[in-house]
From TrEMBL:
Keywords noted in UniProt: Membrane, Transmembrane, Transmembrane helix
InterPro entries from the UniProt entry: DUF599
Residue intervals passing through the bilayer: 70-90, 111-131, 184-212
Full protein name: Predicted membrane protein
Organism whose genome encodes this protein: Marinobacter algicola DG893
PANTHER family, per the entry: OS09G0494600 PROTEIN, PTHR31881
Amino acid sequence: MSNYLELIALVWFLICWLGYSEYSRRKANDRPCLSNTLDLYREDWMRVMLRRDNRISDASVVGNLERNGAFFASSCLLILAGIITALGYTQEVMEVFSTMPFGTLPSREIWEMRMVVLMVIFIYAFFKFTWSMRMYNFVSVLIGSAPLTTDTKASPAAREAFAKSAGSVCNLAGDAFNLGLRSYYYALAVVSWFIHPLVFMGASTLIVIVLYRREFRSTALKALRAGKVFEEPLPKSDTEKEAGKETQN
């Protein structure tokens, strides 16, 4: 019965992870969230960048974003090294864990399955962070190749197309970083699995609630949305103004 509970907890965890990923991706198409709001700001960033000849500040910002991904990617490697080491000393680790008051000691197979799941999560996070780093590298190249303000050969349409293309690459890099960061949240839920499968299920649900609130209902989102005018009334034509005056009279 305990093995079935372990599998049920793992399936629930996968439903929470994959289900929320699909839900947030679909909702981002028709509902304000951090992802689609930052997409707009990144495109605006690229348009502003094209209006200045000195792009040192832009390159510096991209470098900082890339270093963030490098930090988390290197952290993933250190964590993976620790997990692999723990797998090599499974019996010793289980003996140490058995002395703790909050944990129930499962079979060796279940214990190793938990460690493998944790390892897979950090491998996934490592690939996401490194892909984010590489795409920010692409953004650096795009900034270096951006037409100058004195370049008369670049038409307004060409500049707008360039800004959208550079913004899209920057958005993809940000999305990859976001998915890698989510993996850390889900890894915390897996850590609770070592206490009890029911605690694991509760932690998985709690992680989804936290991610949802931060993505769709956070004060940060409200502040970001307040910085942009999304619906601005169009100026009335002279005929509409005259019609309005006649109606009032």
